[in-house]
Amino acid sequence: GQNIDQPTEMTATEGAIVQINCTYQTSGFNGLFWYQQHAGEAPTFLSYNVLDGLEEKGRFSSFLSRSKGYSYLLLKELQMKDSASYLCAVRGSGGANNLFFGTGTRLTVIP
Amino acid sequence: EAEVAQSPRYKITEKSQAVAFWCDPISGHATLYWYRQILGQGPELLVQFQDESVVDDSQLPKDRFSAERLKGVDSTLKIQPAELGDSAMYLCASSSGTSGQETQYFGPGTRLLVL
Fold first, then answer.
1. What confidence tens digit (pLDDT) does each residue in B16-62 have?
2. Quick check: B108 and A41 CB within 8 A?
3. What is the per-residue pLDDT across A36-57, written as a single tens digit (0 to 9) for each?
4. Between the CA of residue B68 and those of A69, A108, B8, B52, what are the distances in Å?
5. Are B95 and B29 in contact (CB under 8 A)?
6. Partners of residue B42 on adjacent β-strands
7. Quick one: which of A50, A67, B72, B113 could link to A31 by a disulfide (CB 3.0–4.6 Å)?
8. What are phi and psi of A38, to 5 degrees?
9. Is the pLDDT of residue A66 over 90?
């Protein structure tokens, strides 16, 4: 089976740094994705990790440890527009290479 | 910038009625996915197409849901009859392949409310 855990909600202050954690237990692993989803909108791609380590992309960074089944998304210099849900998704290693999503972490950025 | 198109954006229907959703993936993307996202949860895969062929429909409630991608381009997802529990966001996504590293790009979704 697939099990992906994320905190349900987080609150952080504008200009600060926030780390959103994701732990997973899946049958096979072929990469981990982070998506941002504003309320009522479609998920948009943020980052992809398949090897251990940190991937940096502007204000956003994502880290992966395959041995620990663990990833985090780091958001720096928070802006009000970063208030959204952040979805962790793991791609299995079956033939269809499907994505399994966590329930998402709702981040609220306050002034 | 190429986008995944979906229509309608919103649909309200009564239970036992039939509904259909349409998706046009990014040009050249061979793989198309339909997801269902219940409020407060992550998307769950319903069906995956590679060109016109179904790759995975193991989570599709086949007694009431059907999906097709006849020419390997756009796709239609149908529910007949709709039930109250089908109220959700239906998301279409596409990717250029399935080797494992292609990113899935999502359309704006169709929000379905069944009364």
1. 999 999 999 999 999 999 999 999 899 999 999 999 999 899 999 99
2. yes
3. 999 988 899 999 999 999 999 8
4. 36, 39, 17, 8
5. yes
6. none
7. A50
8. -80, 155
9. yes
- Pairwise CA distance, residues A67 & B32, whole Å: 31
- Res. B1 pLDDT band, cuts 50 70 90: low
Q: Are strands A99-101 and A105-110 parallel, antiparallel or unpaired?
A: unpaired
Tokens of residue B58, six digits: 């193991």
Q: How far is it, in rounded angstroms, from Cα A90 to Cα B32? A: 18
Q: Tell me the shortest Cα–Cα distance from A27 to chain B, in angstroms.
A: 15
Which residue, chain included where needed, has tokens 């089908």?
Answer: B86
Residue A95's pLDDT band (cuts 50, 70, 90): low
Q: What is the dihedral of CA A49, A97, B91, B75, to 10 degrees?
A: 140
CB A20 within 8 A of CB A73: yes
Give me B18's structure tokens.
């039939």
CA distance A71 to A52: 9
CB contact under 8 A, B44 and A45: no
* Cβ neighbours of B42 in A, within 8 Å: 4, 87, 89, 101-104
| Structure-block tokens of residue B4 | 């995944």
